[in-house]
Write a structure and sequence with these properties.
The protein has about 230 residues and is of the alpha+beta class. It folds into two domains: about 1-65 and about 150-200, 2-Layer Sandwich (Gyrase A, domain 2), CATH 3.30.1360.170; about 90-145, no CATH class. The chain has helices at about 10-25, 30-35, 40-50, 70-75, 105, 110-130, 135-140, 160-170, 175-190, 200-205; strands spanning about 1-10, 60-70, 85, 150-155, 210, 220. It is globular, with a radius of gyration of 22 Å. Flavin-adenine dinucleotide binds near residues 82, 163 and 170.
Amino acid sequence: MRVELVSHTHDPERTVAAAIRLCYSASDIGEIRDGIDDAEAARLIGKVLKLGHLSVLEHASFTFAIEGISRACSHQLVRHRMASFSQQSQRYVKMRTCEFVIPPAVASKAGARELVDAAYDHLQTAYNELLEAGVTAEDARYILPNAAETKIIMTANARSLLNFFELRLCTRAQWEIRQLAEMMLDKVRLICPIIFAAAGPTCETSGYCREGDMSCGKAEAVRFPGDKEAH
Ligand SMILES: Cc1cc2nc3c(=O)[nH]c(=O)nc-3n(C[C@H](O)[C@H](O)[C@H](O)COP(=O)(O)OP(=O)(O)OC[C@H]3O[C@@H](n4cnc5c(N)ncnc54)[C@H](O)[C@@H]3O)c2cc1C
């Protein structure tokens, strides 16, 4: 898996801080921006993070180039509707030498690796033969597995990313999207250390868990009617 932060809003934390200050100030926008140093930006951003007034975070936007994830992972990723995506097409790009993501638990299980390698070999051969027989790529792709690698460009604002990190850094999220979320967080934290200081699952940021019966037990789960007894 490869993740690159290809671009982001210029000076994102000062941009967000200026937006916060603007809401409460009679001054001109230029004056507001000039009057914000790092300490003031940290104070303003810290305040909205605590209050949950997060719309101001939408002024900071980040674009990632993501390669070498499976279609299983990209399907989970594109469920995040507040982000924008452009994905390599299996309709227009012929997958004659497809790479496949092997889950670590499969790679380390005796005999399992050989089983999936043989299955992928067989599928790749069949896919190529379908193309040779004149079947279009858009129809031949129906036999490609969830493991098929894909490339995707993702753009999301800081508010949407905080939501993404909360959900996908949880141990309940699958290993691959969790790994992706970790790599993305490492990159945005370098650019926006204040905004993303407390990014992560609620067990780490707020001391509670919303996963109920499915909680890993790291923090106390919020109980809902119908949940089993707390463990
Ligand atoms: C551990 C885990 C297990 C999951 N299991 C399943 C599963 O079994 N089946 C399944 O289908 N999905 C599953 N999902 C996906 C999940 O339901 C969400 O679709 C996905 O995490 C995107 O989250 P989101 O809607 O908060 O993000 P976004 O779509 O980016 O939305 C961000 C926020 O905007 C608001 N919002 C967005 N759209 C609307 C809207 N239409 N109306 C009102 N508010 C809106 C909400 O506050 C939302 O939290 C799972 C996710 C996780 C993390």
